[in-house]
Design goal:
mainly alpha, two-stranded antiparallel ribbon, 10 helices, two-stranded antiparallel sheet, single chain
Length: 274
């Protein structure tokens, strides 16, 4: 007996409208009715890589850390060049000076013992960043800002070579030469030979020398330093821009030379107790 044709409903519903059955002489033909959604039966590709990318890119920025600037306390005889070399300052003494201009003052050749320099400080010298586009005011567009940044290295490159050559050693020779530079600025007469000759007679080159036995010592004002200056004389003839410590070599020499210039015309004219 011929088997009766059967129409089985397919389990999958991925075809839009199922199947239509057509019987022909007991045989069953199952014809799919193609629906509009059949082309979208495959699952869409995952978009995970695009979602992960921003987080991965942001990670290095969030992990970056800036080290706190270090501080350096200046001692007698040091220079900006020497300090910059010791701390490996990128940009040398010029960069160190830019970040500490308010502390050092207008002359980078004169730094005073006891002041504290910030290593790695941002420049506080707004003038060094100036360019013609700065005059356009706060409303300057992005092109103006780029122009100012590009012009900055040119503005501060010129004085670099001249200043780098002025360095002083932390010894008697360096102290005398630095004092002569200060004296030249202040119009105080004196020569290397005259200063050296009197130092060797008065203290043998010891910046910490003190006389505790002469008449000045009996009065409570002993002679101190390289050129054996008593405190009242040091205070009266102290040269602005040098240390207020009478034992400081440069301050002691310049004060003594200032006194000798007032009393004898120059330290070169002193050949004995003065």
């Amino acid at each position: 007996m011929p088997a009766q044709g059967k129409h089985r409903r397919p389990k999958s519903t991925s075809l839009g409208r199922g199947l239509a059955a057509v019987t022909t002489g007991g045989a069953v033909l199952a014809l799919p009715v193609i629906g509009a959604t059949s082309a979208f039966a495959a699952p869409a590709p995952a978009a995970a890589p695009q979602a992960v990318a921003p987080a991965a890119a942001a990670a290095p920025a969030n992990s970056a850390a800036k080290a706190a600037p270090a501080k350096h306390s200046v001692v007698a005889g040091e220079t900006l060049s020497k300090i910059a070399r010791e701390h490996s300052v990128s940009g040398g003494w010029e960069k160190l000076y830019e970040g500490n201009r308010k502390i050092v003052g207008s002359n980078p050749d004169l730094i005073h013992p006891g002041i504290k320099l910030v290593i790695g400080a941002k420049s506080d010298d707004k003038a060094s960043k100036a360019s013609p586009s700065a005059a356009r005011g706060a409303s300057a567009d992005r092109a103006d800002r780029s122009e100012r940044i590009d012009a900055a290295p040119v503005a501060k490159a010129a004085p670099a070579a001249a200043k780098e050559a002025v360095t002083y050693t932390n010894d008697l020779d360096g102290w005398i030469r630095e004092s002569l530079a200060v004296m030249a600025e202040q119009g105080i007469p004196g020569t290397y030979e005259g200063i050296h000759r009197n130092i060797m007679r008065e203290s043998s080159g010891n910046p910490n020398a003190i006389n505790n036995w002469d008449s000045n010592a009996v009065k409570g004002t002993p002679s101190k330093g390289l050129l054996q200056v008593i405190d009242p004389t040091f205070q009266a003839y102290h040269v602005p821009g040098t240390s207020t410590d009478s034992y400081d070599p440069v301050a002691n020499i310049t004060a003594a030379c200032n006194y000798a210039a007032d009393r004898y015309g120059s330290i070169d004219n002193v050949f004995g107790a003065y």
